Each structure stands twice: as C-alpha cells, then as structure tokens.
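assembly run, all chains below
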Amino acid sequence: MTEPTGDELVRLLGTLANPHRLRIVAALLAERAYVSELARELRISRALLQVHLRKLEAAGLVTASFEVGEDGKTLRFYELTPFSVVLTPAAIAAAVPTLTTPESVRGDGEEGRT
Amino acid sequence: MTEPTGDELVRLLGTLANPHRLRIVAALLAERAYVSELARELRISRALLQVHLRKLEAAGLVTASFEVGEDGKTLRFYELTPFSVVLTPAAIAAAVPTLTTPESVRGDGEEGRT
DNA sequence: GCCACCTGCTAGCTTTTGTTTGCATGTGGA
DNA sequence: TCCACATGCAAACAAAAGCTAGCAGGTGGC
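ok done. output:
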C-alpha cells in the first residue's frame, strides 16, 4: 500500500472521497461492527450503508466476515484494514505512469504488440 | 495541510480521484505550463483541461497566473502548490468530527441553537 | 487582411454516483 | 404463530461529474 499503482490510487481516492464512507472508516477504527448496528450508529439506512460498505470492501479498505452473535443470530461483521498512503505531488507523479486508459487495456497487463 | 477538516479532505480526495487530474499534477510537478501547451502534452482538449484545472484550483492544488510570453502573447501559466496529506484510518477519524452535513450548515460555524 | 495561436465560456449530452423504497429470507423468543 | 431483528438484492429516480462541440475575443506575423 506504500506505492499503489495509478489505478489503485484513483480507486482509493474515489472511495474515500465521500463523507459517509469517511464516517464508516472512523466508526470501524473505533471498533468492528455488524451492518444493522453500524447503520443505527451512523443514522443512515441499511441499504445505503451496504452500498458504501461494498465500495469500501472493493477498494480493500474493510473486510467482512459472518459471525454468530450471543443470541444465535448471524451477523455480518466488518472491520477495518489498516492502510497508509502519503499524498504528495511526487507520490502522484510516481503513480501516474502506471495509469491505464480504457484503450490501453487489452488483456490485463501490457503485451507489447499493437 | 497537515490536518485538513473533514470537508476539505473530501474535496481534496474527490479532486485527486481522477486520472486526468493526477496526470495534470504530475505534469505540473515536472514544470509549470500554460493551458494550450499542457493540453497538447496530455493529449486532451483545451476545454476538458480547463475544467480539470478549475477543479484543481478550487481545491487549492494549483495556482494560475497570467504572463506574457516571448512573442508577446498572453499566456495563463499554472503551477503546482506543494501539499502533503497522510491517509490513514486515524487521520480520517480525526477529520470526521469536522464534517458538516447539508443540514448542519446554518451560518458557517456551529451556533448551538436548534 | 488573413492565418496561427492564445484565452474563455456554456449549452447539452452521457455516464457515474448516491439514495430511497420495497420485497424476500432466516432465526430466536414470547 | 407472530414479532423483532438480522441479511440481501434490485428497480427506479435524482444529483453530480465528465466531456464535446461550438462560439467569441485578443495579439503577433506574413
């Protein structure tokens, strides 16, 4: 996570560039929580929270796992994945060369042939 | 810039979460440039570049200034504003309390009354 | 005068994001 | 059985972001 690729950086930034998601990160830093609980804590609907959690998960910032609570209910716990990225012009310049454009994406990696 | 407010952080992240803008930052780190020149270098239209530059400027990441070139033409030069932000769960948690919600915005700061 | 290059602006379209609403399912306890 | 609480998913809509196309104005050089 010290030197993300350009695409990863864009995804990471795009994922964190949202008030709800920042609050989620902050809440999960304090302690892991299951969906419904977290929704109540943050005062947002479960559906909305789910969308945001999915995005955070897709970016690798949080991880989910099912667990059975004391009362036997199945709960989906989310917890934070530690990360640390330094945002400076130099760091950005280093990531830019690895940015892929829609067209430059052929297979997955670059294969040299036209 | 060491400890941006929640809103500033969101704007900063949102501004950088774009391939074009990252490229612009990288290009300006190498050297300041005027609009048309930069557009050619980045292979994007001037109109598009302008939109992105505007956004970067709004976020305080770049600054603009008019200058007269050797041939007497008026050029608008852009240059990078140094910045450094560390992105970690803790840093985010620190910024979250200062996030404002559309409703919580009355005057500007908080005034206690309902 | 005409061409080349600089600047700026915006109306309008497309795409992506964000959000709500509503339905379907499963389990434990009264 | 019925209620309370947990999960998941999708359709539909609203809002924001991204991009293009086109017009307009200015200056220097041939």
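The domain at 6-97 of chain B is CATH 1.10.10.10 (Arc Repressor Mutant, subunit A).

The helical segments of chain B are 6-16, 19-30, 35-42, 46-58, 89-95.

not gonna interpret more than that til we talk
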